[in-house]
Amino acid sequence: MYITMSQKDIIVPSVKVKDRSIFSLEELYKLLYRWFELRRYIFQEQEYRDEDMGGGKKHLEIKWYAERKIDDYFKFVIEVNFLILDLEKVEIEREGLKVATNRGEIEMRVKAYILKDYDNKWENSAIMRFLREFYDKRLIRLRIEGYEGELYEETYKLLDEVKVFLNLHRF
Question: For a Cys staple, 80 with which of 38, 64, 102, 114, CB 3.0–4.6 Å?
Answer without folding.
Answer: 64
